[in-house]
Design brief:
By secondary structure, the chain is of the alpha/beta class. Helix content is 31%, strand content 17%. It folds into two domains: 276 residues, Alkaline Phosphatase, subunit A (3-Layer(aba) Sandwich); 239 residues, 2,3-Bisphosphoglycerate-independent phosphoglycerate mutase, substrate-binding domain (3-Layer(aba) Sandwich). Strands 4, 5, 6, 7, 8, 9, 10, 11 and 12 form a nine-stranded mixed sheet that branches. Strands 3-17-16-2-15-13-14 form a seven-stranded mixed sheet, sandwiched between helices. The two termini are 32 Å apart.
Length: 550
């Protein structure tokens, strides 16, 4: 069904194009020693604020469909909210509720797992990120799956842990490993039960690649999880402690992959008749491992060796357009009527641009977890390959290349609406390195200084915002908000997102004044879509959260 947009005479659209820039991970912090955004030199953002309208908006928790306001926002739910114009219950909340009310266990997919594992004595393998960051997963959901498996008489459960240190403190892995062992060991001690951690590795070395940047990560995870191949240790704790002794200063997300062994044999390789659940609810870093398990003989990204006959399921559907994975336990949110679809139906030419780390965010997630375009003739998507080096070593990343191609698109005259993402603040912020993150923020500001004059010459409109915070809070804090200190007095590094609001700048370069409403204190990312539509001369459709234009 073709969607229809009505014209609006409330706001006169500018003569030139509308460009929205999402500065990934650049929020509004406290302005103290932990705030790399405040420490950065950002003259362009300061000039834009003076020339146009500015306010802050919410980008975390319930404002983006997460369970509570204690939950950090992330790029996926952030771009979902911006593109949808409404707030949808996200995977974190849907998985939490399905496990708590037991509905996940009443479905057909869990029934198929039950048949293999309780009925035919196959092993259940649980793979996913072990933390309580609630961005990709939550340990309580893993614990719930384990306890249910025990209650239903599954004799064997193996957990393949991916260690975080990114959405949680950077060296907190053993906290989560120990809590998992507290769940597993009492069950493992029961007659006829074998519940163990079987393998592991850091999230940036093992399994959780995205956007096909490094299939080697998936291969390392596959070899450890499926075949039990890799460096062996007597326990996950021993593996973590050994890696830290060998490489002092290593943080959890970069820990090498490992296999837990007993009597010189891997504890839990996969065999025919087993079942596998990937328990991450966020899709971007779940797609490649799902393709490896679901891929038939035509799969060619790496040599999988002998592929056992296992029943594979995701905790949810990770890609609705391509049906990945084939089996899943919790239905994802159905996000319809996105701004991209409305504009395509209205004949508005659109341009989307980002480097590889965030390309899916301005396309797939912006379009409501939908792969592909709404109209090939009207939409152009451009991607720049990301550097295959640690981001703190090149904090400018590919911002210049993104800017080059965006300027070309602006001056081509083809596009009425353009959206781009600068990944720097988020990807460098995740390293926990303060000075490189300052450079990352300054790199984005420098690129804005190149874009703004182009939009001005075209008499267009520039919007600048962010999808969540990260670079704005680079230190761990105590309950009073003060930075925690290491023994040497330096603040403890923080690698996760923040709970801070983000900025929202609007500048019209056609001489038309612009102002933002001051009666929407709870406005968040989902209010952006209606704002964009009004600036393009359309009335926001029914159900969209209100525009922020006064």
């Amino acid at each position: 069904m073709k969607l229809e947009l009505k014209r609006s005479d409330r706001v006169r659209p500018a003569k030139g194009p509308l460009l929205i820039v999402v500065m990934d991970g650049i929020g509004v912090g406290r302005g103290d020693e932990g705030d790399a955004v405040a420490a950065a030199r950002t003259p362009t953002l300061e000039r834009l604020r003076e020339r146009g309208a500015y306010r802050t908006i919410r980008a975390h928790g319930t404002a983006v469909g997460l369970p509570s306001d204690d939950d950090m926002g992330n790029s996926e739910v952030g771009h979902n909210a911006i593109g949808a114009g409404r707030v949808f219950a996200q995977g974190a909340l849907r998985a939490k509720e399905a496990i708590e009310d037991g509905s996940i266990y009443r479905g057909e997919v869990w029934g198929a797992i039950r048949e293999r594992c309780a009925g035919q004595n196959g092993a259940l393998h649980l793979i996913g990120l072990l933390s309580d960051g609630n961005v990709h997963s939550h340990e309580r959901q893993l614990h719930g799956l384990i306890r249910e498996a025990d209650a239903e008489g599954f004799p064997t459960v193996y957990v393949h842990v991916l260690l975080d240190g990114r959405d949680v403190p950077e060296t907190s892995a053993l906290t989560y490993v120990d809590r998992l062992e507290e769940v597993l060991k009492p069950i493992d001690a029961k007659p006829g039960r074998r519940y163990r951690i079987a393998s592991g590795g850091g999230r940036m070395t093992t399994t959780m690649d995205r956007y096909e940047n490094d299939w080697g990560m998936v291969e390392r995870g596959w070899n450890a999880q499926v075949h039990g191949e890799g460096r062996t240790f007597g326990s996950a704790r021993e593996a973590v402690e050994t890696f830290r002794q060998e490489d002092p200063g290593i943080i959890d997300q970069y820990l090498p992959s490992f296999v837990v062994a007993e009597d010189d044999k891997p504890v839990g390789p996969m065999t025919d008749g087993d079942a596998v659940v990937f328990f991450n609810f966020r899709g971007d870093r779940a797609l490649e491992v799902s393709r490896a398990f679901d891929g038939g003989p035509e799969f060619d990204k790496f040599d999988r060796g002998r592929v056992p006959d296992v029943y594979y399921a995701g905790i949810t559907l990770y890609d609705g357009e391509y049906g990945i994975p084939r089996h899943y336990l919790v239905s994802p949110p159905h996000i319809d009527r996105t701004i991209g679809e409305y504009l395509a139906s209205a004949g508005v030419a659109q341009f989307a641009m980002a480097e590889a780390q965030k390309f899916g965010h301005v396309t797939y997630f912006w379009n409501g977890n939908r792969g592909g375009k709404f109209d090939d003739a009207l939409e152009t998507y451009r991607e720049v390959a990301s550097d295959p080096v640690p981001f703190d070593q090149r904090p400018w990343m590919k911002a210049a290349e993104v800017t080059d191609q965006t300027i070309q698109a602006l001056t081509s005259g083809k596009y009425r609406f353009l959206r781009i993402n600068y990944a720097n603040g988020d990807m460098v912020g995740h390293t926990g390195k303060f000075e490189p993150t300052v450079i990352a923020v300054e790199s984005v500001d420098l690129c804005l200084s190149r874009l703004a004059p182009v939009v001005e010459k075209l008499q267009g409109t520039l919007i600048v915002t962010a999808d969540h915070g990260n670079a704005d809070d680079m230190v761990e804090r105590d309950k009073t908000g003060k930075p925690k200190r290491r023994a040497d007095g330096a603040p403890e590094n923080r690698t996760s997102h923040s709970l801070n609001p983000v900025g929202f700048w609007v500048v019209r370069f056609d001489g038309e004044p612009v102002a933002l409403r001051n009666d929407l204190p709870e406005a968040g990312l989902a209010n952006i879509a209606a704002t964009l539509l009004e600036l393009l001369g359309f009335a926001p459709p029914e159900g969209y959260l209100p525009s922020m234009l006064a």
